[in-house]
Amino acid sequence: VKTRAFWGLGLILAICAALAGCSSQQAKSAKAVSPPPAIPVGVATVKQGDFNVYLNGLGSVEAFYTVSLKTRIDGQIMQVNFREGQDVKKGETLLVIDPRPYEVALAQSQANLQKDEAQLTNAKAQYERNKVLYEQGVIAKQDLDTLQASFGTFEGTIASDKAAIKNAELNLTYCYIKSPIDGRVGLRQVDPGNYVTGAGGTALLVITQLHPIAVIFTLPEDQLLQVRDHMRQGPLDVDAYSSDDKTKLSSGKLLTIDNQIDATTGTVKLKAVFDNPDNNLWPNQFVNAHLLLETRKNAITAPAAALQRGPDGTFAYVVDANNTVQMKPLQVALTQGSTAVVTSGLQAGDKIVTDGQEKLQVGSRVAPQSPARQNQSSGNIGSQT
């Protein structure tokens, strides 16, 4: 009886062990068959369209013309015909210096001219009378020659009188200080009643031309050839942005490139001209200049965040219709800000991974999400190939 019980218990234990082994094997099989969870990644769409290529530089605004008006004569200021900050036109009278002393000097010079002209007329009349007497043998030839020589003396005096009149007229003109340009008047330096002198050299007022106005900015010397080559094809557009590079202030044209490179900084200066109709640009204002170098037609663009570097060059992870990723090698023409222009490897409409690439490998299953770093606004050119 004990033997039978012993063999029955052994049989039961063997059956239990077999059942446990089967369950463990099924669990392992099930675990091996179930797919891994999808990896959440940021995904963006490749786009195609015209792409503006900009070169950006730091610069400052300069008045196209700046004139410091000074007096060239001495006198008391009688009139101030402008307000501070007023826009003035070329030829407009701004200041009047007491003209009376110069009017008197002009009248005196004119009187001297009349007197000397009368003396010359009298000398010529005497010559004609004495010429008859000489022919009659009444006077000597020497006396006649003396009268004729006096013509030159009086003619020289008359020429001096005429020069004195022109000088007096010029001084009288200097009494009326006029604007030589269209521009804006700065702060007033003098008041009516002040006495000014030509030797003082102090500016009475400063006029700056704001229409047009210029922006001087710099670019690295290695971009000089690009700019020069594109200038041969036509005028290049330049946009002026605020100091934070967020607000567009005005649009203008590139005027010229400086004739030398700054050896200390390795940069070259460029000058652009702006019509500045809204007065958004002001002399000595700090700005960011965006020079439109070219427009690439039908360019393939992608977020620069999608670009990855590997042993074989640049690549990106492309998401297929099954939400699995494939690695595509790319040829990149340039990166500008957060956008890259791709010449091969991508097509418009492709979905590429912009976030979470460090978790991926070829064939990984992903869960696409909105990209956190997708931003295809224009910025500085980072690199060109």
What's this entry about, in short?
This protein is of the alpha+beta class. Helix content is 29%, strand content 38%. The protein is built from 4 helices and 23 strands.
Relevant terms:
six-stranded mixed beta sheet, alpha+beta, rod-shaped, 385 residues, six-stranded antiparallel β-barrel
Which shape, going by the Cα principal axes?
A: rod-shaped
CA-based gyration radius: 46 Å
Quaternary organization: single chain
Structural class of the helix and strand makeup? alpha+beta
Q: Mean pLDDT across all residues, rounded? A: 86
Order of helices and strands: HEEEEEEHHEEEEEHEEEEEEEEEEEE
The major β-sheet equals: 6 strands, mixed
- Pick out the low-confidence regions: 373-385
Tally the beta strands.
23
Structural summary, described in words:
The protein is of the alpha+beta class and 385 residues long. Helices cover 29% and strands 38% of the residues. It contains 4 helices and 23 strands. It has helices spanning 2-33, 100-135, 141-174, 224-231, and strands at 39-45, 47-63, 66-69, 75-80, 87-88, 93-97, 176-178, 183-185, 195-196, 205-208, 213-220, 237-241, 248-262, 267-274, 286-303, 308-310, 313-319, 325-329, 331-336, 339-344, 351-355, 366-369, 381-384. The strands form 4 sheets. Strands 1, 16, 17, 18, 21 and 22 form a 6-stranded mixed beta sheet that branches. A hairpin with a 6-residue loop joins strand 12 and strand 13. Helix 2 (100-135) packs antiparallel against helix 3. The longest helix is centred in the N-terminal third of the chain and has 36 residues, at 100-135. The radius of gyration is 46 Å and the shape is rod-shaped.
